[in-house]
Please model this.
Amino acid sequence: MGHDVLLGTSVALLVLGALASLVTARDRKLCGWIAFGFATASAVPVFAIAAGVLRSGAGPEVVLFRLPVLEASCAIAVDGLSAFFLIIAATICVLSALFSVHYMTHFPKDTVAKFYPVMLLFFASIIGVLVAADFLFFLVFWELMTLTSFFLVTFERESRTSQRAGRKYFIITHAATLCMVGAALVLWRTAGTFHFDGMRAAFAALMDGRPVVGNLVALLFLVGLATKAGVLPMGDWLPDAHPVAPSGMSAMLSGALVKIGIYGLLRVFCDFAPVNDSLRAWGVVIALAGTGSLFVGTLTALKQVDSKRLMAFHTIGQIGYICLGIGVGLYCLPSRPALAALGLMGALFHAANHACFKACLFLGAGSVLFRTGERNMDRLGGLGSFMPVTAGSSTVAAMSIAGVPPFNGFASKWIIVATCVLVGFKAPLFLLLGIVGMFISLATLASFLKVLGAVFLGRPDETRRVREVPWAMAAPQVVLAALCIFFGVFPQAALRAAHAAITSVSAVELPAASALAGGGWGLSLAAGGAPLGVWAPIALVVALGALTFLAYRIQRAGAAPVRRVDVWTCGEEHPISAVRYPASSFFLPFKHAFRGIYPTVEARAPAFPPWLRRAFDVDSWFYFPVGKAVDRGARGFSRTHVGIPQMYLLWIVAGAVAVIGILLIFVR
Amino acid sequence: MTATLVALIVLPALGAVAAQALGRGRSRWTAVVLSGAVFVLAAGCIGFGFGGIHRAAVGTLPWLGESVTGPLFGVLLDPLGSVMLLVATFIGFLTVLFSAAYLREGNREHPVGPADQGRYYFRLLLFLASMVGIALAPNYLQLFIFWELTTVCSWALISFREDEKSLRAGFKALLMTHIGGAFFLAALLVMFVGTRSFEFDAPAALPETQRRWVFLLLAVAAWAKAAQVPFQTWLPDAMEAPTPVSAYLHAAAMVKAGVFLMARTVGAGWDVPSEVAFFLGVMALVTIFLALSFYFVQDDLKRLLAYSTIAHLGYVLIGVALGALGSTTALRGGVLHIVCHGVAKATLFFCAGSIAYITGSRSISALGGLARSMPFTAVAFFVGVLGVTGIPPFACFWSKMMLLAGATDLPGAIGPVVIGLILVESLISFGWMIYIGQRIFLGAVTPVCAVNSDPPLPMSITLFVLMLASIAAPVVGVPLVRLIGG
Model:
């Protein structure tokens, strides 16, 4: 079957599912299962297409219909890059849908008719964005995606904060979209079409012929796409939108939606942009933006006490890593294709990994929220013994995001940082950025130790009667955690897919995947035949396991006594929750040191000065006075009608004299 | 065909008389049936005559017929006229349908007894007839006659409540649009003296100076009708009219007559001097931003929508001005905006009407949390907001996109400046509109909004149809506007 048929089936299933879930919205769980069923069914063709494309190259382009009045056509094509992100998005959407089935039962005021249908349409629009081969329709699907996600973020109708966050999200990202509209129009002017091929040629022509305009277009694209991806400062919508969204949606936001921004960046800068010196400059810009984002985002995350807000700041941070990888890759693209390929593959791999561990973390936070009603980590603690599955998968995901071997986060961060360091021999700036990235990993680890410590560890509080979440909520977390381990131990599969994605769009001939990242079980990086580094997770796992076992044996052999007592509070009785070490007390020196790192600006409606207001009010200074003047004039004139015949006669005589006078003077 | 087109004008006019004569309860359904029939006939005419131009002479004036070249009265159905005809009859029908439920004693904002039904439908149907007349006018003279007829109908409908405020507002609207009409008349005279003709392309034969004056005079007439700067003040006051009237006359149809006149003029193919076209565009931009500046201080929902209407009419005029400067795509985009804005803004007005009907309030600050009791209206309002502000894939996105794409055709800095300004305005108005939507429908329920129902069935049907139209309008509109300008 052709791609168009499969994709059509998939989108049709989603629309059908939206209608079905709209009809059944009264029964929350039934509605959720229906939505999950349709999401899964529609994901199957998507996976089939993506796997086929990654294995055997891009499929043919299909034009659904044309729009000659704008020289646009609704063309769809799936290449490697699309396929890579299709897999990420479909995985996250299906798992989030499964998670939501039970999760959405705990919103008493809001009907799920606002959630599942919109969620399925959101999934459909993501598919649309990824397969569109025409920029006009790319934008249409893009904004449809924003629109649907806006309604998902503002799901809680009566919560002012969620309305506010959603509004902020929509306005900021809409501004970004308008930037892209501007850029697309400039290219359209040159190309005469919105099709990707035409725009690619036009971009190259502009970069050559009118570099100022060309670079302006690149800037507009960068702003537009980086906003969606959550790069600071435009990514400021992210820490507000993530906490207020239902947790399944938070996972989709972080796992799928911001990745679409990354997809757009790669599409524009790897696919559209001509390979020349200005691309190198843009690589530096993207790398700097990424590093700034990972620095500020992660350090701000250290200060958070709201679990989901903390994770949102980490999304900003991890997106920073991805951008750093993209930036270093773009910088090397013109001259050193092997390093470029490594950087871009690292970035893509990290995008996939981030989707796994961040979705898992959001689902974990959602599980805690579901059972306790709390996002504030100060009021949580000791949940590990009640919710072992959630605690376990969250721990795996937290270790992954912090880049602890042998999890997947380590593998991808290692590739990115290694590439930076290698490039750093020639361009010291990247050395610096790589080192910053490496050290910020520590801050990530610290921040997640806080989460794990404050939420799951500590003395359990038996009075709260918290239970583990139902299997349908636990399963997605376990799957995602398993993926984190799998990609950590076997990074080859994902890296080959990333390589296929990069080579499908890059204009530069890149070395083969086997020449870059070989090694059967682990990973050995090489560039131009020279080995760069080796990563052997199995050996590491074995060594770590042996050491753990050894430590355990030594402890047992030493037979040191273990003493468990309550915290001594001068003899007074306190509940466990009051004597627990709260999340807000972690890392106080850091909080003081980086106090002003994330400034906030208050936005308000513009107030016009009174004189301007008056000037705009034409009625008050023009029409009303003129009307009154006319009225007064008419009154004055009516006074000449006095009703006395003699007066009228006098007027006639005066008039006649005047007429005769005029005639005598002018006519003669 | 000619007979059908003439019937499109005569039928609602007869219906107006019938509604007045029947009075009381029956006038309502007479009006619904008649306006429905007019819409079906109009759609049929457009469908059958698609792609072609139908022009026929119907009559002339004996005392003027000798001295004028070409027939005085007739019908003309071309793509541009079809667009206007479609908007006028489609939204006209929905307005009548909406009014059937809105003008009741159960209306919380403004109860209307059965005794007042007759005169309401008389005026509304007469307006429909004159609007169809404008859309089908083959020359400036006939257009002018129906143009003034709409002014009169508008005056009568704004003053429908006959209290102090609505009488003043009606008088103000009449005065200001009629002043515009005087400029139109002056343009007609210049044209007639110079060419002995009222045809749309007649000014082509005039010397350049006179052509410039004719265009400017027509522009002033259009500004007054479409409430553009400096005549923008009558439209917000005209919101004293019953809400269906505001939706139809002051968002979808009558104010569109002004921009339609300019589109006609530019589309007729006579060489518009570029500096006056440029002036028209600048004034439209000024209007857009001036109207935008008033968004933030409005508390009356309908007044906010009125300012938004003013801004969007500015969009159409920008399209027309760019068209006069040589960009056909922009002209098409502007004309498409007539349809797209018409349906989307009508959706919003009808939502405001439903809210007023149920709660009795139009004050933004008094409303809140309405989505709980009026979920359907909430959906319709958000669809309207997204439609008006041009979020893809809703209607106005496509027309704005065509407009912007057309702007890139122009040489020099005009295109980028226009694009930049339009995008900025789009963003700000979008932000404010979505804020208003959230404020009215979401959040905690205010005392005013402690009601328990969506509006009655005819109103809901209207909203539903318009919601669909807010998405589907380009599907109908784009094939039509593609035929404009060759």
Remarks:
- Chain B touches chain A through 46 residues (CB under 8 Å).
- The longest helix of chain B spans residues 164-195.
